[in-house]
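INFO batch 0412 | record 1 of 1 | parsing
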Amino acid sequence: MRKGKVYYKEHFAGIVTETDDGEFVFRYEENFVADHPKEFITFTMPVTSKHFTDKRLFPFFDGLIPEGWLLDIASNN
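INFO prediction complete | emitting tokens
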């Protein structure tokens, strides 16, 4: 299982997880839901206490992953 912290500006917004079954889950952090109900990460993932799941990495996060030689550098670090 792999996890990554997600920040919105300087605020900890939630965790994106890749499960051992290959499924992806994103859940907003409780304090973020309470304090920033209108500051969503993306339109397709409004701020809620429910989690989002998908069999592929969510398009918003997938678009943040570097490609090519930059991916090699990021992977090595």
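INFO post-check: Residues 2-76 form one domain.
INFO record closed
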